[in-house]
Write a structure and sequence with these properties.
alpha+beta; Jelly Rolls; 3 domains; 5-stranded mixed beta sheet; 9 helices; about 45% helix; about 25% strand; binds adenosine-5'-diphosphate
Length: about 375
């Protein structure tokens, strides 16, 4: 329970002003759950909580009521009405049995004319309330944004895992049947292997995507030409599995770049996988690297159908996927993040013969002029 004069709004008033205030203020009590005022009511004065708890809430949209302030003993509510005299934009309800001091608007205005300290305290109160509201609003917007992304993410994962898992289940049944021929059994086992590979790719992408800031992101001086050649040899058998070929246009520039080989490997892996996905069975992927005075540019060109116009504008956006049964829409956004972590850029276009060309650049280390 607080006396009116101990409320932070009135603490600075002179004994004379406090005396006047005490005479004006009317005490009112509200049982738990009772409404003190509601949206649309006349803003006829301010309230100071003497005892109890008041919840101030407003409608968000058509159906949801949102509590944006809980006001305890000594605190003020309904103060906006003193300034604008407009209908209440929020409702106040006693959350417990509550006692309040009510000071009618006209009386507050009279007091304000005589007491600059009260005017200052009231402005401070209003500014604190706005700041608090702003903070809460920002937090909630951020949280809502995160939840939206998480929801889309969860939906995309569940959806994408369902198909390969169904395929594994069916293939396992076929492989386990006694009457299945050795040839059909081998095919079923190969299908399971492929689906497991697909799931592990997806999990790799999800882990990469959820990693956030990378504390382990260390750049080491690396011979880029040698790195690309070794990677191409590693990936060639996988590409051959899809009856496609990988050609590396030589000679590769032997530039020494600052890079994180493990993460850059994922860029090649994602781009080459996308290329073989787009080409279906067969096709040719060409990889070339060239340098200018500032950077080393790598291009991966495929002989597929090219980038569909429906996705061209969003290629590198998270969850943007088009024309794939199991696309997560994460691969290119991950590539972009990795390349930008290397302070480079990535872009895509269709080549003159129709296939897609993905280009990314990595900066050459700055030369020491001394
Ligand atoms: P996902 O492959 O899971 O869909 P990505 O971010 O890797 O996600 O790719 C986004 C989309 O870009 C793909 O769904 C596809 O439509 C398009 N795309 C990517 N690479 C190629 C390519 N080499 N040729 C044609 N389209 C491509």
């Amino acid at each position: 329970m607080v006396a009116l004069e101990t409320s932070k709004l009135f603490r600075q008033l002179s004994p004379h002003e406090l005396g006047a205030l005490r005479r004006i203020a009317k005490e009112k009590t509200f049982g738990a759950g009772r409404e003190i005022f509601k949206e649309g009511d006349k803003g006829d004065g301010i309230y100071v909580v003497k005892d109890g708890l008041v919840e101030v809430s407003a409608m968000v949209g058509q159906t949801v009521r949102h509590v944006f302030a809980r006001i305890g003993p000594g605190d003020v509510f309904g103060e906006m009405a003193v300034l604008d005299y407009k209908p209440r934009s929020a409702s106040a309800v006693a959350a417990k049995d509550t006692a309040v001091y009510f000071i009618p608007r006209d009386e507050v205005l009279n007091l304000l004319e005589r007491s600059p300290m009260l005017a200052l305290a009231l402005l401070r109160e209003i500014s604190d309330r706005l700041r608090e509201f702003n903070c809460q609003y920002l937090q909630e917007s951020l949280q809502a944004e995160r939840l939206t992304i998480l929801g889309r993410f969860a939906r995309s994962i569940v959806h994408d895992l369902k198909n390969p898992l169904n395929n594994i289940g069916l293939s396992a049944e076929i492989a386990a049947m006694e009457r299945t021929s050795p040839q059909a059994r081998a095919q079923a086992v190969a299908r399971i292997g492929k689906q497991v590979e697909r799931i592990s790719d997806m999990i790799g992408e999800i882990l990469e995507f959820t990693q956030g800031e990378h504390s382990d992101f260390v750049l080491a001086p690396t011979n880029y030409g040698a790195f690309v050649l070794q990677l191409a040899e590693e990936l060639r058998p996988e590409i051959a599995l899809k009856a496609a070929t990988l050609e590396v246009d030589g000679p590769l520039p032997q530039a020494e770049l600052l890079l994180n080989p493990k993460r850059l490997r994922r860029v090649f892996y994602n781009l080459l996988h996308n290329a073989t996905d787009a080409m279906g069975e067969g096709g040719k992927v060409r990889l070339r690297v060239f340098a200018n005075e500032r950077e080393v540019v790598t291009e991966i060109e495929d002989s597929g159908p090219g980038i569909a116009p429906e996705i061209a504008g969003q290629l590198f956006e998270t969850f943007a996927t088009h024309g794939k049964a199991h696309g997560t829409g994460l691969g290119l956004s991950i590539c972009k993040r990795i390349i930008e972590d290397h302070r480079g850029w990535i872009s895509a276009r269709n080549g003159p013969e129709g296939g897609a060309i993905f280009s990314f650049a990595l900066p050459l280390p700055k030369r020491d002029n001394c």
